[in-house]
Amino acid sequence: MNGSQQQVFNRRWYVLLTVGIGTFLSSFNTSITNTVLPVIERELHTTFDQSEWIVLIYLLVLTLFLLPVGRLSDIWGRRRIFLAGFALFACAAAMCGLSANYMSLVWGRAILGLAAAMILAIGPALISIAFPAEQRGSALGIQALITYIGLSLGPVMGGWLTQLWGWKATFFATVPFALAGLLFGMWAIPRVAVERPKQLDVKGIFFFMIGMASLTLLLNSNVITRHRALIMPLLFLLFVGAAWAFLKIERNHPDPTLDLALFRVRNFGFGTFGAALNYLCFFLILFLLPFYFDRVLHFSAAEIGTYLTITPIVMTVCAPIAGALSDRIGPRILATLGMFFSTAGLILFGIMVPVFGTRTHGALIMGLILAGLGTGTFAAPNNSAILGAAPRRQQGTASGMLATFRYIGMMAGSTVGGSLFNLFLKYTAQDFLRAFSLVMWVGALFGFLGMICTMAMTEVKPQEW
Fold first, then answer.
1. pLDDT digits (tens, 9 = 90+) for 241-250
2. 253: three-class secondary structure by DSSP
3. Residue range(s) defining the domain that contains residue 236
4. CB 71 within 8 A of CB 200
5. Is the residue at 201 inside a domain?
6. For 342-403, what is the HEC assignment?
7. Does residue 69 sit within a domain?
8. Which residues contact 86 (CB under 8 A, 6 or more apart)?
């Protein structure tokens, strides 16, 4: 072990704390913004379609830059880009808080997306490098725990801050966290030498971003309200063309943005696709359940919020446990168990109405627990397997690709849930419950595909990584 690597290991818990601040910042900001969106809509006098872009622009920029930023961190240095992400996040959050109109807020959210990409794409890579293989799962489990804490606190803090000082306070509240991450990271994260590229893959990055922009808009097609018959086919053709060009460039480039050979490594290839499928299942549930609570059970907003906190609480509890266990028994069993829990939750929601009739409250709670167990048990072991399979010089690329697939799964879950539900609703003559059940069964099929991915992974003991 060289001196720089020993220095990284010696500071590993401080590195984890810094990365944890970044992941908390991102998840907290996401959940808090979604909570106060109706207030922003009223005060800025925006339409519902415009409000959707406040959320989508962040997601679009974030997804576009995750892989390019991860690759550039392998070239220019992970420490430099990661710390710059904190500085940019603080500036962008302040810009959002100072916004006097809709467009300035949208621009601020776009810059926030870029800053979040710089943090999220590199954070897991820093953890993977800082921790020895036998502790990697535990560290990633703690990171997942911090993420879920941010998701849980966002709605509560968002409502409280907005009630006291208005919606702008929710953005200013994240500035101290960003500055703390920057200052602490400057001390905690050591400088590590990186391998210089043969040639920067500018064309590959360009076509990747074009393809991801097209895919993101296709997966969020509800924001396209005019000329859909023309725009949707054009977006699909643009995505196919950009994907074809990107793959062709990557095969022939001497130093590609994404080394396609990584996908021939079983744990990387099956792990990334499994991550997309796990988050697809999770967000399909999150998208449709509030409508079930509202239209079928006629719950108030407070009651819906109370029920929906069950899932992140379960995730918060089981994520660090699953991460620590993966260090002992390997990631394959736990990742498969997580996909099984997610699939079981979807099946329970699918049979809930026919089997339990109107007495569904117990089944709802059990389904929400299973959903939390699914993602909480899956995430850290699967992330550990993916990062453990990638070469050290490509840790930033692997981390960025993992985050990209995760966000694709999130968007796909909402899109599949919404589109299929509307389709089945027409097919079943506006029978809400039947359409709801059918969508959950389709989600369970994706869960089975995810189980196939995790079972296809190689069971590698931590000491062998």
1. 998 998 888 8
2. coil
3. 206-254
4. no
5. no
6. HHHHHHHHHHHHHHHCCCCHHHHHHHHHHHHHHHHHHHHHHHHHHHHHCCHHHHHHHHHHHH
7. yes
8. 22, 115, 119, 178, 179, 181, 182, 185
With b meaning 16 or more CB within 10 Å and e meaning fewer, what string describes 243-279?
bebbeebbeebebbbbbeebeebebbbbbbbbbbbbb
Domain check: are 230 and 274 in the same one?
no
8-53: pLDDT as tens digits: 556 778 888 888 888 888 888 877 776 677 778 778 887 756 777 7
Q: Over the range 143-156, which residues count as b (16 or more CB within 10 Å of their CB) and which as e?
A: bbbbbbbbbbbbbe
Q: In this structure, are 273 and 346 located in the same domain?
A: yes
The pTM for the full model equals: 0.78
Buried-state track 88-124, b at ≥16 Cβ within 10 A, e below 16 = bbbbbbbbbbebeebeebbebbbbbbbbbbbbbbbbb
Cβ neighbours around 309 below 10 Å, total = 15
- Please tell me the total count of domains within the chain: 3
Q: Who contacts 369 (Cβ-Cβ below 8 Å, separation ≥6)?
A: 310, 311, 314, 345
Distance CA 245, CA 107 (A): 30
